[in-house]
Specification:
Layout: H1 3-31, H2 34-56, H3 68-91, H4 99-125, H5 133-157, H6 161-186
């Protein structure tokens, strides 16, 4: 996908996410529902990351100088992923008789923490100023493994329509994440 198309998509997703954030924030203020608050937190993390991308034009894979954008980029991505999993794990009620879901969520959180500390170590002790595509592939596939494990485990355990809709949304998110990872790693236009 060309650079212009990527920018158009990022602007579109930023606008849609910002509108959804405003809507869900107002909805939360009216209903005081924890699920809406957690989803609003995820949307906020997405909007912040997209604003960061549009403002800095930072390229995680081609950065050649140390910058504040390099320091912030990866933690923003990890926070966004954490926010979504925190939301969905609360909706799925991982504390109630679902060991596969608990394991998947725990694995996801541990992986996020490990990836964050690897990033901090790179900042403090190496001259690296970019993320290699191989590191990107391995780290994101690890996170996706836990995401798919938890979502399919939840699909098997949870039977209510509302929760299954949330699970379906999570599966769509995970599938498109996989396509994005493959596209970025292989320099491919998967969806075009």
């Amino acid at each position: 996908m060309g650079g212009d198309n990527q920018h158009i998509i990022e602007w579109f997703v930023l606008g849609a996410s910002a509108i959804m954030l405003i809507y869900h924030t107002i909805l939360y203020l009216q209903q005081r529902d924890t699920y809406i608050l957690l989803y609003s937190n995820y949307l906020c993390s997405l909007v912040i990351y997209l604003i960061f991308r549009r403002w800095t034009h930072f390229d995680s894979f081609a950065n050649d100088t140390f910058s504040l954008a390099y320091v912030i980029d990866h933690p923003l991505i990890l926070y966004m992923l954490f926010s979504y999993v925190f939301f969905i794990s609360n909706v799925l009620e991982i504390n109630k008789n679902a060991p596969v879901i608990k394991f998947a969520v725990f694995g996801f959180y541990v992986t996020i923490i490990v990836l964050f500390f690897i990033h901090v170590i790179k900042i403090l002790f190496t001259d690296e100023t970019f993320i290699s595509r191989t590191y990107f592939l391995i780290s994101k596939l690890t996170l996706l493994f836990f995401a798919f494990l938890g979502l399919f485990g939840a699909l098997y355990v949870r039977k209510t329509t509302f929760v299954r809709i949330i699970i379906s949304g999570g599966l769509v998110y995970a599938i498109f994440s996989l396509l994005t990872i493959l596209s970025i790693f292989g320099h491919l236009n998967v969806l075009v």
